[in-house]
Amino acid sequence: MRTMLAEIMEQAGFEVAGQASTGAEAVRMYRDLQPDLVTMDIIMPDMGGIDAVREIVREYPDANIVMCSAMGQQSLVIEAIQAGARDFIVKPFQPGRVMEAVQRVLG
Amino acid sequence: LQRSRHADLYIAETREHLSLLGRGILGLERGTEGALDEAFRAAHTIKGLAAAMGYQNVASLCHTLEDRLTDVRDGQRAMDAALIDELLSMSDALGEAAESTFRGPQPEDAGAAQAFQQEAVSAPVSDSCSAPAPPPNATVTARVLFEPDTPIRAARASIVRRNADRVGGVVGSWPEPDVDAGELLLHLSPAADLLALEKAIRTAGHVADVRFEPCMTRPPERSPGRAEEVEAVAWVRVPRDRLDDLAEGIAELSVFHERERLANGERATSDRAGPVLAELQRVILDLRMVPVSVAFERFHRLVRDALRSVGKEADFVMEGAGIAVDQAILDAIVDPLVHLLRNAIDHGLEVPDVREASGKPRRGKLRLEARRERSSVRITVADDGAGIARDRVLARAAQAKLIEAGTTGVSDEELFRLMSQPGFSTAESVTELSGRGVGLDVVVARVRSLGGAIEMTSTEREGTTFTIRLPITLSLAHALRIRVGGEDYAIALTHVTEAVTMQDQQTERQDGRETIALRGERIALVRLGSVLGARTGNETAAVVAELGERRVALAVDELIGHEKIVVKSFDAAVGTLPLFSGATILADGRPALLIDPLSVA
After folding, report:
1. How many Cβ atoms from other residues are within 10 Å of residue B90's Cβ?
2. What residues contact B343, with CB distance under 8 A and at least 6 apart?
């Protein structure tokens, strides 16, 4: 899933600065890389995606985080948005939809 | 639901201005002075109304139309029929857009839509929508509509909410954050920056539309100052049936009052309620009166389109558009007038070449005139076309066994009577305009059901004129109470010109009909007793009725007097009782039938 998303982003001309596989790793990596944009799964091992968002936004209020969710995760997505996520995309990913969200957030 | 009340106002005003726009465009075609300005003003107002409601589609259509008008003003576009057609179709599109926006993204099933509308009428104050009332400090509600395929709409709504919160001014919202209601309402304080809000809302993505609507449950806090308050009460739109109920109530009250007054006899001098009731009646009548132009305005377009579709040319003249009549009457008479106008265009007026060949100007004349006459209004539809082809009408009537074959020399009255038989039509082909079996009989029935009368005069090669006389109002009529064969009847004064005593009358037979002399003229006398199957010979008076050229005297046993009556509609099958046009309750409480004096002429 992560690779697929990375492909979509690279094809659109973005550079993928790093890929984390857990929530805690994501927070650490954000401090090091301070990327323009983060896409984050809602469900992740150890620290969940929502906690990771909360953590990152606490330190970097302008962080641009787009949540990746499946249909049926409505309340989790809302929680993530309240935690500071900018937008969300829904699986299965459609390149067009992904880029729309990215442009909205970076726009 | 709050929206729907406002939307009602919106659509009513938009319709008015659409009709002005249509008039302006047609004026352009005729080269009427000021027509361009009128069209401009109307388009601009429609745009403003739509923008105020947040109906962007309507507003942008208006904008396009204004652009086209600007081209005309600046001489960029030549005025020709094609341009007029284009402008008219744009105005049509505008009307459709306004109507469909007004109906909104409605539930699929019509039942719900209907219930929605009924609620809007019957419960205008209570908010029966599931959305709770907006907070008291809210003056505007932003209604956010999402694209149909928006994934996880409730989450998208959260983004909208957050974006709007950042701009500020949001004092409440609906529904709860984790509920998907299909749309999102944001209640805004007077301080909210609507432009910035709309921008922020739209950047949340998947937003199809943002509509700003005034909150209705609580009036916006007014800044102190009387001027605004006066403005606020200057106009009230009320559903018509409320007004009808009120009018009927007042009318019945005044009939009761009259009954009391008659019962009390001489003590009537201390009548205090009388003048008050009379004033109330005047006020309510006034409220229901609208100028005929309200309905006639649309005829310009109708006539134009009808003429074009049959390739005929005519100048259409409307006169007396400012004459005021009861709106209920106006509504009811529109269809018959449409029918008469279409008939005139389809069957009356000739094509230009034929007109030229018979020495007439290529362009015909079509005239619609309203005129106040005593307590009634007279409407004339006249054309300078070929006139009624008597031979064809008579042949057709003979075919239908209405008259004997070979009959000639019938009067206009008789001709009209034949033509208004149900299903009678001489149209050789069914055209787009008329000849679909809805005939003059329907027109006659409608006019009569309103307590009116219609007559026709026609001269071959010169044209045909229809004259309709209608009461000014339906609710209360002045009537003459008469007695025939021991029964009391009422005759509406709409058509009555005078009453004469029979004692001084020398009746005389002319063309097989009994006549009396009235100021040197002989008019037909009909003994009501013989029509009603009662004994005749003891008539003491005759009531003279008139419409256009037609006059008739109705001999009655006794003339009782003048009364105010409330006319109740009459559900007898059309054609079964040509004599009676309605029923009423007389001042002494007795029911009586209302006689249409011209039906026996």
Report:
1. 19
2. B434, B440
Q: How many Å separate Cα B190 from the centre of its chain? A: 40
| Structure confidence by residue, pLDDT tens digits, B339-374 | 899 889 988 899 999 999 999 999 999 999 999 876
pLDDT by residue (tens digit) across A47-104?
788 999 999 999 999 999 999 988 778 888 999 999 999 999 988 888 888 999 999 9
pTM for the structure as a whole: 0.50
Q: Is B476 helix (H, G, I), strand (E, B) or coil?
A: strand
Lay out the sheet containing B521-527: strands in order across.
B496-501, B541-547, B550-556, B521-527, B513-518, B508-510
For residues B76 and B57, what is the distance between their CA atoms, to the nearest angstrom?
26
DSSP label at residue B599 = G
pLDDT in tens, B93-115: 888 888 877 776 533 333 333 33
**A65-69 sheet: strands from edge to edge:** A38-41, A65-69, A87-90
Residue in chain A nearest B165 by alpha carbon: A82
Angle at B575 between CA B572 and CA B580, to 5 degrees: 60
Identify the burial level of B104 via C-beta atoms within 10 angstroms of its C-beta, where 0-12 means exposed, 13-18 middle and 19 or more buried: middle
Which two structure tokens, joined as six digits, stand for B391?
């031979």
Running DSSP on this structure, what letter comes out for residue B347? I
pLDDT grade for B569, boundaries at 50, 70 and 90: low
How many residues does this entry show for chain A? 107
Q: Tell me the C-alpha distance between B314 and B318, whole Å.
A: 13
The answer to whether the CB of B297 falls within 8 A of the CB of B347 is: no
Residues 446-475 of B with CB under 8 A from A: none
Q: Does B180 touch chain A (CB under 8 A)?
A: yes
pLDDT of residue B111: 39
User: What are the start-end ranges of the H helices in B54-109?
Assistant: 56-73, 81-103
How far does the CA of residue B308 sit from the closest CA of chain A (Å)? Answer: 51
CA B553/CA B541 separation, integer angstroms: 9
Percent of chain B at pLDDT exceeding 70: 83
Would you state the pLDDT for residue B341?
93
Amino acid at B144: V
Residues of B in contact with A81 (CB under 8 A): 155, 158-159, 162
- Residues of B with CB below 8 A from A102's CB? none
More confident residue, B188 or B270: B188
